[in-house]
Amino acid sequence: MIVNDVKNELWELSSGYRAKYQKVLRFAPGDKDGITCQWNPLALENMPENWNQKIVLIDRLANILYPVENPKDAHWAKNAQDVFKLFTMYEIHTHGSTTFGKIRSLVLSSGDLQELAQEIANTENLPKQIIEACNSFLQKQDSELASIVSTFFTGLGVFADPIVDLATSGNDFTKCGATVRVYFIHFKQLKDILGIFRPVSIFGFF
Description:
The chain has 206 residues and is mainly alpha-helical. Helices cover 49% and strands 7% of the residues. The longest helix has 22 residues, at 74-95.
């Protein structure tokens, strides 16, 4: 069971009682003391077996990270989504799983994202979706590339926080079913990633 506990009130009032009858977890990626369980939608155990279904999962995450809130900014948001999907698909194809923090580290390790995309494109036996994503990104003109990359990095910026990175690097309640109650604790300073933690209903993990 998932409890959306915006102010931490329900955790304080009911978690002790609930713990007598079921396991309770506190997911609070913004807790300054790091008191939180972990959940990573890109973990191996959350990955569908079918490659096309994995792409659907990645696409949904991209839309949450880079929402098209203003039609005037749609071009940059859509392109940032494509960049995120490119590197996430590559990580999943190569390693089977990844984290938002690892994706951020991957792209930051390269001084030139188009150069990194070219290296990926030269990899053998890539799925066509990754090849097409690489080719599309490599065709971007210098005049728009900086804005696309800036928008892309903005979406992953919150995962530079080591507590947020740790909270989204493992799984404490994957496939927990009805025997576990998870309290989602939200913090105002983390409003940019609240959408990432909504997929428990979107992705049907529970």
